[in-house]
Amino acid sequence: MVNDMPDWEKFKEVIEPVMKKIRVEEKYFKIRAYGEMVDILWRRGNLQGAIRLEELWNEFMKRYTFSLFCAYVMDGLNVEINNGPLQAICKAHSHLIPTKDYDQFEKALNEASHKVLGSSLSSMLRTLASSDSTLSTNMPPAQAVLLWLKENMPVTADKLLSVTRQYLEPLKN
Questions:
Q1: Less Cβ crowding at N or C end of the chain, within 10 Å?
Q2: At what angle do helices 141-152 and 154-172 cross, to 10 degrees?
């Protein structure tokens, strides 16, 4: 880290020897890496540092072939997270896998979208989000809807996030 941001040279100094040892000395060719540092940075509030570390991993993947897994503990209904950081994280990943209670999230989002938008607009929104080719990350439909809305109708997205949270609150108790 340099000034609270991951540094490319320091990153390479740590990761490259490990990758070479695994690949050359240990002769493992299918490598899976898991990094929890992104989550540590994220939880500490260093969102830009977490995003930068994702970029460094992606850059490093151009040099070595391996699968990279990471996980974040985040509130996907937090307006601040949906104001850019989540989109940046999605751009750095091929897949977004939701929380274990995704079915409840999907149901709450459906109910909230019917309340906020009405049933016909809610259905149309799902169609628009699913056909959006700018979403390079493979993700569940409800998450795609929220990201599409945040990009195209930010005020409505914030309202939908708030109402969805209201539907989920009773389920936590």
A1: C
A2: 140
